[in-house]
Amino acid sequence: DQQVKQNSPSLSVQEGRISILNCDYTNSMFDYFLWYKKYPAEGPTFLISISSIKDKNEDGRFTVFLNKSAKHLSLHIVPSQPGDSAVYFCAATDSWGKLQFGAGTQVVVTP
Amino acid sequence: GAGVSQSPRYKVAKRGQDVALRCDPISGHVSLFWYQQALGQGPEFLTYFQNEAQLDKSGLPSDRFFAERPEGSVSTLKIQRTQQEDSAVYLCASSIDVNTEAFFGQGTRLTVV
Are the Cβ atoms of A97 and B41 closer than 8 angstroms? Predict the structure, then answer.
């Protein structure tokens, strides 16, 4: 069963605007959440993470929000840049780092 | 090297052939993971090593899949008698310790014809 879900397969956003990517999970035992970015023909690159004891983590243009009661997290990218065009994966773990991934969201940043 | 290195980058195998995929993790990284990524999907967990010990192999799809990390560094994922459904990108990741960010290699794209 899919324990991590990204329901939007794609997102198009104008350069300079905010990109908001959403992720839902079903396993209440998940205690650590990560976002990875992936360019074609490359492996996923770690972007930002958040522990379940927090509800927000910020790193430059990237902010991750966690709503445990709703089992929902989101990634905000502000401002969006052309280089942000990639596939973004949400991932979660409940133990020693074994990751459960969502199916990914393809982000396209247009000029 | 600076990052996780996987070889080969691309592999075409005839159905029934055995293949071996190699992963060189970042030096000093204790944890090593293998994932399988089908087209249009997120990576799916296959197996996990902590040093040379394989602590979880619950994601291996069948007994045709075998992984090892004999000296706690380089790891090999072997697939015997490949089938078309084995076609995927196989990703290796390593992390310095448990519950720290994992760094991924570029993957090996396996195509079984």
Answer: no
In terms of Cβ atoms closer than 10 Å to its own Cβ (0-12, 13-18, 19+), residue B90 is buried
* Burial class for B108, CB neighbours closer than 10 Å (0-12, 13-18, 19+): buried
B98 vs A contacts (CB less than 8 Å): 96-97
Cβ A110 vs Cβ A54: under 8 Å = no
Write the pLDDT tens digit of every residue in A36-58: 999 998 999 999 999 999 999 99
> Number of Cβ pairs closer than 8 Å across A and B?
63
For CA atoms A99, A76, A50, B107, the dihedral sign is positive
Q: What is the pLDDT of residue A53?
A: 94
Is the Cβ–Cβ distance between A106 and A11 less than 8 Å? yes
Contacts of A2 in chain B (CB under 8 A): none
Nearest to A99 among B6, B45, B98 (CB): B45
